[in-house]
Design a protein that fits this description.
The chain has 278 residues and is of the alpha/beta class. Helices cover 40% and strands 12% of the residues. It is built from ten helices and seven strands. The strands form two sheets. A five-stranded parallel sheet has the order 1-2-3-7-6, with helices on both faces. A two-stranded antiparallel ribbon has the order 4-5. Helix 9 (218-230) links the parallel strand 6 (208-212) and strand 7 (236-241). Helix 1 (8-29) packs across helix 4 and helix 3 runs parallel beside helix 4. It is globular.
Length: 278
């Protein structure tokens, strides 16, 4: 079933709120990973507010779509989306990484509603997504498993073992997004361990490959996801070119903001640039 399309302007407003939520979280905790959370905010917004059949009333429905945040250190973007979705309250974002919070530094399935996997070490989420998709195939469930990986994360060998299995089992109910912002904690991915050409590698593993030139453009994200949903007999990967720290001028394309929290003054500037809560 095709999800209801939301106006692009509405998605942009939601994505802006998600970004404000990200800054709110890492500033309150004085810890966290803003760069890769901001780069994937539009992807996560599109998935949660248009593509996926998820809401606060169907979290326990085994037939709903699932989302696996494989790059678990980007938890601020997930929590901010859950807040905009009404699954958690906005005020709870300020408890990020605090003692006894539900909003752990990496998402914990037993802690926070709406979290579909406890994420930790990079490279583990996508294999879990493959397992979920295979289980849904066996059980005949009409649902889609979405997964988000970082471009640095796909340097992990477990990603490619999972890709091989996904192709072998023809998991056309699995859609992987790659947040290709070209930066990881130690610098450009090309300097650390280049995964390029990402599209050709996944194609060689039997995936339906879709490239998105601007991973912050909702029209492009929508078109890509519709193509992936229409593909039968193989899993899909959507490789999105994004900007690390997108939306905050002093964070954009700056590797130093991979895992650093803004000061009170910097957080205020970032939220002002984003226009505050809408």
């Amino acid at each position: 079933m095709k999800r209801k399309e939301i106006k692009i302007m509405d998605l942009k407003t939601i994505a802006s709120n998600v970004r404000v939520g990200i800054i709110t979280e890492v500033a309150a905790a004085q810890s966290g990973h803003p760069g890769g959370s901001l780069s994937s905010a539009d992807i996560v917004t599109y998935l949660y507010f248009e593509a996926m059949n998820i809401n606060k009333d169907n979290l326990d429905d085994p037939n709903r779509d699932k989302f696996i945040l494989s790059k678990g250190h980007a938890s601020p973007v997930l929590y901010a989306a859950l807040a905009e979705k009404g699954i958690i309250e906005r005020d709870e974002l300020k408890t990020f990484r605090k003692i006894n919070t539900r909003l752990q530094g990496h998402p914990a399935i037993h802690k926070c509603p709406g979290v579909d996997m406890t994420a930790g070490s990079l490279g583990l989420g996508f294999p879990v997504a493959v397992g979920l998709a295979l289980g849904n195939k066996i059980d005949g469930k009409d649902s889609t498993v979405y997964c988000l990986c970082g471009d640095g994360e796909i340097q992990e060998g477990s990603i490619w073992e999972a890709a091989m299995a996904a192709s072998h089992y023809k998991l056309d109910n699995l859609i992987l997004y790659v947040d290709n912002n070209n930066l990881q904690i130690d610098g450009p991915i090309t300097d650390v361990m280049s995964p390029y050409p990402i599209d050709e590698k996944f194609a060689a593993f039997g995936f339906n490959v879709i490239n998105v030139e601007d991973g912050h453009d909702f029209d492009q994200l929508r078109e890509a996801n519709e193509k992936a949903k229409a593909c039968k007999g193989k899993p899909s990967v959507i490789v999105c070119k994004t900007v690390k720290g997108k939306g905050v001028s002093f964070m954009e394309n700056q590797v130093g903001w991979h895992g650093k929290a803004p000061s009170e003054e910097q957080a205020k500037q970032a939220i002002e640039e984003l226009g505050g809560w809408k």
